[in-house]
Amino acid sequence: MTIKMKIKTKQISYKDVDIDEGFWSNKLDMISGTSIRAIRDSFKQTGRFGAFRQDWKEGEPNKPHIFWDSDVAKWIEATAYILAKKRDAELEAEVDELVDLIEKHQDPDGYFNIYFILIEPDARWTRRGAHELYTAGHLMEAAVAYCEATGKDKFLRLMCRFADHIEKVFVKDHSAAFSSPGHEEIELALVRLYRFTGEKRYLELSKYFIDARGTVDPGQSATPPLDLSHWRKSRNIQDHAPVRSQRTAEGHAVRAAYLYSGMADIAYEYDDTELFEACRAIYENITRRRMYITGGIGSTAIHESFTVDYDLPGLTAYTETCAAIAAAFFVERMTCADNENPEYADIFERLIYNGILSGISLDGKTFFYENPLEVQPYLVERNNNLFEGQDLLRARLPKPERSEVFNCSCCPPNIARFVASIGSRIFTYSNETLYINQYIASTTRTNVNGSGAEIKIMTEYPANGRVSISVSGSGFSKIAVRIPSWCRSYTFSLTGSSRFPAAGRQENASAKYIYFENTASASPIYIDIEFEMKVLLKESSPFVQDNAGRAAVQYGPVVYCLEEPDNGRLLRNISISCDNKWEIIPNGYFGANILKTTGYTKSLPKDLSGSDSLYYDACGAIDVSDTRGGSPVLEQKPLTFIPYYAFANRGIAEMTVWVLRHFHS
């Protein structure tokens, strides 16, 4: 059965949205006030900015790398979003200097790549895994964002020349050694370039790369070579089958989700139901079998990849920050392609409050590349073993603390550009309906559907589920409000002109929209809604055997964890039950509530001689009331759960998301 796009919508731009209070206002202030400069400084120290001068010489430190252009491009894009809301002469001057250097060193034919112009000028377009198209895509996205923010079009013109060059090489001359990128990204960037410039050739070029994937490139075999170079493993670069026949998420998680984002864009623009059906199947495979409860994707460090269904270990979870961001790009595009289905926005919410925000520290200065769901600091010594190559990857564990910069430092500027543009992810709209997908305190003034509209959201979300919405203007005849899947019941009241019942209470089993029909444009309608927030214990499918007998704690959209500074060590010994009583406490340091309750822990067993036991009887071979030794005794223990996104901000410490379930006899 072919799955069709039902309601296609567009997003309201972040430029029309003011986020001046609440949870996301604090995050935006952190990005614009701290993170953007912290990333800039680390990129300067590591030579990334200086590389644009193209004056590096052999023997000097900081040799330019094949993906450095993309790191800086994402920083420029994040800066553009900041400048669009408030001009900053210092940041703007630094971007302009970089653009001048790009103009100075761009080849006459439009080609630009620091590494290949300076280091290997004769190797352009010869290696599929060399990130040329990937970096080009990020430069194009940055150019669009900068022109949109400032009105300066030099960078955009330079990148249009680059896109024209790529079209000539790949479509007209077929002179490259491959036909589609090893690391996807340009596919969605070209669609963005098309939507901003109106030049349809860029859309067609994106479609060319989408359609070419899954064919064997001349000289670039889809069969893994003996050296296991990860960019040539066909499944790892989603090259194992034509995109319209793909049904499962495979390979490198960032590449995959960027590809799926591009596929969703092309399905949207061309009304390609066959391609959308592939997107939908892949989406279901990810969200039902290959996604962590935090929204993270990519469970192994080996090729930074998806593996098989239900393989979701917490301790060794790779879950790259960029992969979570790429997943968010994918689901927001699926929202636009089929806005009758609120499940996409529901998954997006899971991502933004958990698997993405965990990638940045609470002060905005340091970052995670990987985001595990469990940390055992003493086991990190496994990283210092004697294995090499693939064996080392199999034994390694994620770093237990954030860093200012990485050798591959894609994640810091990626999270900066994502958070800085979060205002674009609140609303979508069709010819008649405004969809409210995310509950972010904000004021929006926009002209859509030929009429002005003002939308105000007042809320302390995610601290509680109370949301007040006012909508005025004649641009929309219907207002659709998303009911989150975690919400078991909700109440609402309505004033203003609408045919919807004025008040009511609904029980909810899954994510959905409720619709308010606006019958007059002269006066606004006011919607007050309260989503019931209760602490939920979430279990995995029994096929996720790593989580057997365990539960995760969720309050509203936020997933919680236990951490050593609050609860001591041996977190895996702690258990909780469904009848726990919970105290919800606002916490300024973490920026959200903390949860307090009482659980159980096992006393440390001692044998009869008093020395620590490595093994002991589990079923009471020795009287359990005899605390001198024998089987463990369950003891009550006060517990504090913190938001998962806030772990590892108080030093290296144990952490776990999945906690033992305690069943009363």
**Count of domains:** 4
Helix content: 25-40%
Estimate the strand proportion: 15-25%
Number of helices: 15
* Largest sheet composition: 10 strands, mixed
Rounded mean pLDDT score: 90
Multimeric state: single chain
Topology, number of strands = 22
**Rg estimate, integer Å:** 26 Å
Shape: globular
For the terminal residues, how far apart are their CA atoms? Answer: 48 Å
SS-based class:
alpha+beta
Question: Could you name the ranges where pLDDT drops below 50 across 5 or more consecutive residues?
Answer: 221-232
Short description:
The chain has 665 residues and is an alpha+beta fold. 32% of the residues lie in helices and 17% in strands. The chain has 4 domains: 46-217, Glycosyltransferase (Alpha/alpha barrel), CATH 1.50.10; 243-423, no CATH class; 426-531, Maltose phosphorylase, domain 3 (Sandwich), CATH 2.60.420; 535-661, no CATH class.
List keywords for this structure.
665 residues, alpha+beta, Glycosyltransferase, Maltose phosphorylase, domain 3, 4 domains, ten-stranded mixed sheet, seven-stranded antiparallel sheet, 15 helices, 22 strands, 17% strand, globular
Descriptive account of the structure:
- This protein is an alpha+beta fold and 665 residues long.
- The chain has 4 domains: 46-217, Glycosyltransferase, CATH 1.50.10.20; 243-423, no CATH class; 426-531, Maltose phosphorylase, domain 3 (Sandwich); 535-661, no CATH class.
- Helix content is 32%, strand content 17%.
- It contains 15 helices and 22 strands.
- The chain has helices spanning 23-45, 68-85, 89-105, 114-118, 132-150, 154-172, 186-197, 200-212, 253-270, 273-289, 321-337, 343-355, 389-395, 411-420, 564-567, and strands spanning 10-11, 17-18, 374-375, 427-429, 433-436, 442-448, 451-459, 466-472, 478-483, 489-495, 503-507, 512-517, 525-531, 535-538, 550-555, 558-563, 575-576, 583-587, 592-602, 634-643, 655-656, 659-661.
- Strands 3, 14, 15, 16, 17, 18, 19, 20, 21 and 22 form a 10-stranded mixed β-sheet that branches. The protein has a 7-stranded antiparallel β-sheet with strand order 2-6-7-8-13-10-11, with no helix packed on it. A 5-stranded mixed β-sheet has the order 1-4-5-9-12, with helices on one face.
- Helix 5 (132-150) packs antiparallel against helix 6 (154-172), helix 8 (200-212) packs across helix 9 (253-270) and helix 9 packs antiparallel against helix 10.
- The radius of gyration is 26 Å and the shape is globular.
- The chain starts with 9 loop residues before the first strand and ends with a strand.
- Mean pLDDT is 90; it is low at 221-232.
